[in-house]
Amino acid sequence: xxxxxxxxxxxxxxxxxxxxxxxxxxxxxxxxxxxxxxxxxxxxxxxxxxxxxxxxxxxxxxxxxxxxxxxxxxxxxxxxxxxxxxxxxxxxxxxxxxxxxxxxxxxxxxxxxxxxxxxxxxxxxxxxxxxxxxxxxxxxxxxxxxxxxxxxxxxxxxxxxxxxxxxxxxxxxxxxxxxxxxxxxxxxxxxxxxxxxxxxxxxxxxxxxxxxxxxxxxxxxxxxxxxxxxxxxxxxxxxxxxxxxxxxxxxxxxxxxxxxxxxxxxxxxxxxxxxxxxxxxxxxxxxxxxxxxxxxxxxxxxxxxxxxxxxxxxxxxxxxxxxxxxxxxxxxxxxxxxxxxxxxxxxxxxxxxxxxxxxxxxxxxxxxxxxxxxxxxxxxxxxxxxxxxxxxxxxxxxxxxxxxxxxxxxxxxxxxxxxxxxxxxxxxxxxxxxxxxxxxxxxxxxxxxxxxxxxxxxxxxxxxxxxxxxxxxxxxxxxxxxxxxxxxxxxxxxxxxxxxxxxxxxxxxxxxxxxxxxxxxxxxxxxxxxxxxxxxxxxxxxxxxxxxxxxxxxxxxxxxxxxxxxxxxxxxxxxxxxxxxxxxxxxxxxxxxxxxxxxxxxxxxxxxxxxxxxxxxxxxxxxxxxxxxxxxxxxxxxxxxxxxxxxxxxxxxxxxxxxxxxxxxxxxxxxxxxxxxxxxxxxxxxxxxxxxxxxxxxxxxxxxxxxxxxxxxxxxxxxxxxxxxxxxxxxxxxxxxxxxxxxxxxxxxxxxxxxxxxxxxxxxxxxxxxxxxxxxxxxxxxxxxxxxxxxxxxxxxxxxxxxxxxxxxxxxxxxxxxxxxxxxxxxxxxxxxxxxxxxxxxxxxxxxxxxxxxxxxxxxxxxxxxxxxxxxxxxxxxxxxxxxxxxxxxxxxxxxxxxxxxxxxxxxxxxxxxxxxxxxxxxxxxxxxxxxxxxxxxxxxxxxxxxxxxxxxxxxxxxxx
Length: 961
Known about the structure:
- By secondary structure, this protein is of the alpha+beta class.
- It has 29 helices and 22 strands.
- The longest helix has 51 residues, at 859-909.
């Protein structure tokens, strides 16, 4: 035991001294191992710090209160709720009996008095929210208004005050830092809501720890939303706000808001977020919500995700080992005389292996310490940036020692694994050969190629099976990884095959190729490292390019290329005139067309209005033209259940069930009121359509709206919302008056981008419809520049319109930067691996270089040889990696095709047909990426190696046996 300990202690000392003497090589290997450790440790600390505990979550949601009461909106109907989630919402509660009880009747609606659930003797605060545009230095900014007495002790912790103070009287507000920055404001400035002629003074700036990017202002209860809603009412506009919650303090019992109190509040239709329940939740067996809706999902995560993560980590470790292994081999080769002296003084192979392995241990430990420390320090230094990116403040700076220790041990393990092959190779070197500097005879491993061939065949089979016969992408990924490992094992043999082309090359590249082939022990790991990096890049690039091709094929233009729209349904289109001026001032226009819309009720009514004085309309579809898959049955029932699977498949091909509208610029009804300028903007040139519109006739672009052998289209006006809802729930037509219009049927070949019915204003007026301005459609002579677009949006912002204009610019691919980043990444890995191999080759071929110098070879030969050695390794790795990367990409694409086809067929079988079918994902080879890898990267590696190589070396006697 003592001898083993002392021998390893001596080996570690030798390795530490060697690492210190060879600082450049040590830093290179340390960096390769430490960088992933730095990244993983930084991610671990970031995620743990951003992950809030239950107590922290409650502090941010409740402040100093015990509970938050909220109205379920069901008019006091008893509900059951989930106690485990830290947020409230419809996903966390349902009425007693479940939502299924309301399939045949309307669900109850209405408000409830939250004070009914406040415990005796408990204090409470109201927390009311609404939204409204606020006038700022740059125009109008949509902001959330929160009426809360922020200075009350119950509200402590909800809003984090940064500067100034919270409001203390009417006319004062505080605002979030993000709101002040976005609006160009500061403390002391005065602002006005858009629809209220009252100024409010900003007296403080705060932030919401859970939402740093929210634009919010804070006012005292009753001082902002009430006068704003009164002003909105006088203008005939809908009110804002009304979402009031109660923050409840400790009651007389002093036990907090218990689970029994929560259940009691649920009987009144009130949902509760309780601190006491969150900290000590009841057993699932005691929760009525779980008894009614089923047990909650307690799975910790997806097995597929964990397996995929393990595969990625394994391949990353393999890549590091392949890159670092040759570097350790360089150290062993340059220290071979020292290792030979160890053997000459009684050391055996175990000691030689221990010295080289100790090099991996020393570098691994150093990388673990440096990577972990730098990861923690980087996270701490970048905490404000990370918090801004995540949009919320960290909790405590959370360091998990066991997790960080595991990450650090990963670095030590990687260092040891990278040093294993060089250690075994160095221990087999004859002592005499090490002392004299001769290379000795290296025998090729005959077993490894066979294992590699078996792995390639088995991996390809698994990947192919996963692609064409299974739904699991893990089979494709796992099989591809196994096949790639097999190619790595076959690399020495493949390198030998490259040697056959040496006879056709000039002197320097021939010498470089011959040297690479004869010394496969150092060439193969570097080639394999390049192969692994390039294979991953090619696989991801191919999949990304193919996915983009599918997205491009499925892209549906909202409008023709270069055509824009700007619409508003606020206040009867009062801002359309200002919108027209903004467009004319900032856009290179070709044609500008005004568009109006039909209103049922007063001019402020929209199709989404809840006001009883407002109605809605729809273009009537005759019964004979309706898709049977979508018609019939009461609400909540599935009309497709009346048909067999074979009938559903047949109906899926029926024209009534495959209607495609495309585009959404005209609202849900697809009706526009305007003249022939709209046709010019849309590029509709059919003579019959143009002449019909000029003659004052409406034009119908949708076949389903017209009766057979008829040129009439009906518009149904619905004025009674309640009766309409009841009829729909009973599976009947909504009652309403149908007005028929004589129309011109447009040819089916005309592309309208969602426009279904176009009528002149005079025709709409003659039919008895009231119209108001809706917006503008315009074609451009050239796409606006970024500056013009920003100016246009700024003009609309100053007008006070919340929806920005839209200009169709066609499909915009987002993968170009991804492919570029992948190419750069693969290039850096390739150059790094090739550079390591070149350094090893120079250490191994120093006698040849000295012989070249001795016989009078010019200096450029030495540079050329180094350059070609580096370029040869890079080229072989890129060629093999490009071929190896195609397999997983094709496998994943075929798997995706099967999944898409199965999903489409499943939708058809369930009666969910209609619209565009799924485009089959193509297999697209990213030739630009492959070209950059195959040409630019090897050439760049060769030139870089030639530039950094010394032209002359010292003359020395070459030892011969």
